[in-house]
Amino acid sequence: MKNVFTNQKLMIGFVCLLIGFMIAILFNTNQQPDERETRDTWEIRSALQEEQKIQQNLYQEIAIAEKMLLEYQEQTELQQIDSLKESIETLQKEAGIMEKVGSGVMLTIEPLFLDKEYQEYPSLNAELLQLFINELNAFGANDMAVGSQRIVNITPIRDVNGEVYVNNNPIGSLPVEIRVLTNDTERLINHIEVSEINDYFALENVTISIREQEKVNLPNYEGTINLNDVQLGDVPEEGES
Length: 241
Fold this sequence. Notes:
Blueprint: H1 2-31, H2 35-73, H3 77-95, E1 100-111, H4 126-138, E2 141-146, E3 149-151, E4 157-160, E5 163-166, E6 169-170, E7 176-182, H5 185-194, H6 197-203, E8 206-218
Antiparallel strand pairs: 1-7, 1-8, 2-3, 2-7, 4-5, 5-6
């Protein structure tokens, strides 16, 4: 009988010990910071801040458009015609149809180093160029051109027979110049200098040189913008919600 009680006590003691051990592990796990989760949280927070900036800019653009509409309604017929011409010219500049001049940076993508005896001449690929353009747009680039090709919203960037084509035109071999207009040159330069994009370029034996310029000239977009697929939204009448 004593053996039975002894075995039960041992079993209960073992179970209690096992439960205590599991609780200790769980407590210790909860106390240790999860570095991956913290890093992901910061990434999400940064992305949220960027989205908030975009939303704020959209609100500002809407307010400007509403102000322009109010001013337009108060103008005479001749003034309305002049305002329309001015608005069309502004839209053409923003769409890239017209040349544009402003302050910004000149970026040169060039070989990192060359060893003619053992190394092939480095080249650029469309995926890497597109990634770089996306980074420039995210950190303050207003308008840009790659070589002689103006970048617009519908610009295709693709690899064709080992060459990079922008707007269906080859940009040629390295070095390649990218001209960028921006309102905050310092912010853009600082970001490029610390960006991981430099590591991606280095893997292709390519580097980026940057220089600030007070006057940057961008060519106009020479392609045709097809508006056949553009659909106009319904504009509510005044007083409708």
